[in-house]
Amino acid sequence: MYAxxxxxxxxxxKAVIMKDGKxxxxxxxxxxxxxxxxxxxxxxxxxxxxxxxxKDIKYCVGTGYGRDKISFINEAVSEIACHGKGARWLVPxxxxxxxIGGQDCKALRLDDKGNMVKFITNDKCASGTGRFLExxxxxxxxxxxxxxxxxxxxxxxxxFASACxxxxxxxxxxxxxxxxxxxxxxxxxxxxxxxRMSTLANNIGLEKDVCMTGxxxxxxxxxxxxxxxxxxxIKRIRREDPQLAGAIGAAxxxxxxxxxxxx
Amino acid sequence: MITxxxxxxxxxxKAVIMKDGKxxxxxxxxASAQPEKSxxxxxxxxxxxxxxxxEDIGYCVGTGYGRKHIPFMNSEESEIACHAKGAVWQVPxxxxxxxIGGQDAKAIRVxxxxxVERYVYNDKCASGTGRFLExxxxxxDIKLEDLGALSGKAKxxxxxxxxxxxxxxxxxxxxxxxxxxxxxxxxxxxxxxANRAASLARGILVEPDAVMTGxxxxxxxxxxxxxxxxxxxxxxxxxxQINGALGAAxxxxxxxxx
Lengths: 263, 258
Fold this sequence. Notes:
The complex is a heterodimer.
Chain A: E1 2-8, E2 12-19, E3 22-30, H1 35-50, E4 57-63, E5 75-76, H2 79-90, E6 96-100, E7 105-110, E8 116-122, H3 130-139, H4 144-150, H5 165-177, H6 182-204, E9 210-213, H7 220-230, E10 234-235, H8 245-258
Parallel strand pairs in A: 1-4, 4-5, 6-9, 9-10
Antiparallel strand pairs in A: 1-2, 2-3, 6-7, 7-8
Helix pairs in contact in A: 2-8, 3-5, 3-6, 6-7
Chain B: E1 2-8, E2 12-19, E3 22-30, H1 35-50, E4 59-63, E5 75-76, H2 79-90, E6 96-100, E7 105-110, E8 116-122, H3 130-140, H4 147-151, H5 165-177, H6 182-201, E9 210-213, H7 220-230, E10 234-235, H8 243-257
Parallel strand pairs in B: 1-4, 4-5, 6-9, 9-10
Antiparallel strand pairs in B: 1-2, 2-3, 6-7, 7-8
Helix pairs in contact in B: 2-8, 3-5, 3-6, 6-7
C-alpha cells in the first residue's frame, strides 16, 4: 500500500512516497510559476524514480501554499498540521518545531501525543524567512550553502539596526563597499535571521526537544546562531532531509486515510 | 535678521534661509555619503540663491538624521520638533502632520498652540516610506517623479495583498507578467504605501486639520491615496520637502529673538 505527500511551496516543491511506514522515494524541485505545474512535475519525478504510476498510490495528501491547486490529491491538509506530523516522525521526542520556508516562518508546539498545542506564523514580513537569506546571498554573490558555512570563520559579526530586509540589504551593500570581511557580514546576516526567528519561537513558549525543519535547517550558521539566541539545544534531523518534513507529514496523513484511520 | 535651517536626511539635504519671518531661499539636493558634505553643499547653494554670505546668517539650526555632522550649525533640534514647527507656520490650524520621507515615516499631533502632543515614528520597516516607491519605480523602470502623473491614468482598481516591500515587489512583477496596466499597478502601489503610513498615523489619533509633508507629498497620487486612507482632507503646503528645514530656520529665529 503506497501513500504519497506533496508539499508545494513558494520556492521548492517536495514529494514523498511511503510504504508500510517507510519512505521509499522523495524528491525536491524548484517551484515553477504555477503551483499545479510544480505539483505535477515533482509527483511525476518521484513516481518514476519509485517505478510506480499514480494508480499505485492509494491516497495522496497535498500541503503547502499551493495545495488547493493540486489536481491529483485526495485531500489538502494545512502546512502547520503536516509540519507537526512530519517533525514528530523525524524526531519522536519533539515538542517545538521551528519551520523556515522560502516566504514564511512558523513555530509550533506539540504535546506528548503529538497534538498541536499552539502555533504562530509570519508570512507578512520577509525578515526571518528564507527570502531574507536569499536576498542577502544575492547581493553578496554567494550561494545559500556558502552563506551558512561562513559564520564559523567570523571573528566580528556585523549587527543590523533594523530587521527589515530592505534596510539590512542596504547595510550589507555598505559593509561590502567598506571592505568588511565577508565572513563577518555573513555571520551578521545569519545572526539577524536567528534573532528574528527566536522572537517568533519565544512567542509560543519553547519546550524540549526543539527541532528545525525547512530548507534553512540545513544552514549551520543560522541553526548555531538560533541555539545561542534561544539558549537551548536544537535537535538536528538526520533521518531525512529536514526540507521534506511537510511532505512527510502529508504522506503520513495519506497513509492514515488509506488504512482507515489507524496510526 | 537672517536665520537658517538645515535638514540632512537619508536621501536628500534641505536648507531654508529666512529673513524677518519670510523665506528668502530654499534648496534641496541629493544627499551624498558624507552628511558634512551634503550639509555644506546645500547651504552654500541656498546662500548663493539668497544673495547673501554665510556670515550674514545670525543663527543656524540643524535637524534630520545626519544633524550631528552639520559643521556650521549653532545648535540642533529633533526632526519631530522641526516638522511640527514648520507645519504650524505653513498651516496655522494644523493639528496632525504626516511626514513621509525617503527612509522613514512619522505622524505628529500638535495642540492649539503648536506644541507637540504625541508622535509616532517608523524607520524600522521600509513599508510605508519613500523607499517602497523607490524600489518599485526602479523595478518598473519608471522615474520616481513620474509616478504621480502615471497613477492619474489608472482605470482598473488593483489591490496589493502584500505589505512587505520585498513580497510586494514579487507581487508587482507577477502583475506585470499578467499583462496588467502599469498605471493601475502604480495606483495600487500608492494605496499600499499610504495604507501603511495611515495605520502608523492612526496610532496618534489623526485630528483635522491635517497636512502631508516630506518629499513623498510631492507625488499627487500618494497625496490622494493618503487622503483616502486617512479619510480626512489633507492641506497642501507649498514645498512639502523643505518643511523640516523650515522648522529649523524658525527655531533659529526664536534663538536670536531670545
